[in-house]
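W.,

You were right to be curious about this one. When I first looked at the sequence I had no strong expectations either way, so I just let the prediction run and decided to look at it fresh. Below is the sequence, 193 residues in total, followed by the output.
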Amino acid sequence: MSSGPLPRRIAAAPRALERDQQVAGLAALGLLLSMFLPWYEKNVFDPRARDFVNDSVSAFGTVSFVEAAVFLVSAGVLVLLFARAERREFELPGGDGTVIMAAGLWAAALIFWRVFDKPDVAGSGGTVGIAWGFFVAFIAAGALASAGWRLRQHERASRSRPPQDPPAGRSPPDEDPTLAVQREEHPAPDRLF
């Protein structure tokens, strides 16, 4: 666990992570930052001007369960990766990759749902459409799920690898050292077939 000022620890965290964790962190940060972009465009007819008035609304401009859940997903993944960068040990069901993949899939599903269930931000006589920031958020959620999947594959591969043989001349940690000496004095015969 590192010590020092929090801004310095946050700045040093990406260098302490593996590549897939770094990609997951970038995707989570992209998802979080996309919430400041215009997600919705509202059009309202102004009777005085006899014209439609357009306005862009970010995800924070209309907070509901969907926007709050997307925020918590991205912030939660960033906190998880910061804890891993500081070498904090704790177990997650399925491992970090599974949790990050599920978080990305959940965020993507919520964002996709928002296409059909737009918030009521237009007022009476108005319409709500999807703006470009919405698509950036959807891509970031997909990238988060993909990074989680790759991280999960690496975790599974590292768990299925057999333990490494100890260097020559050293016995495995749980083996009696006298057995290693006996093996060196009486090597096994070479096989002919």
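Here's what jumped out at me. The first strand starts at residue 38 and ends at 46. And, maybe more interesting for your project: The two ends are 54 Å apart (CA to CA).

Coffee later to discuss?

I.
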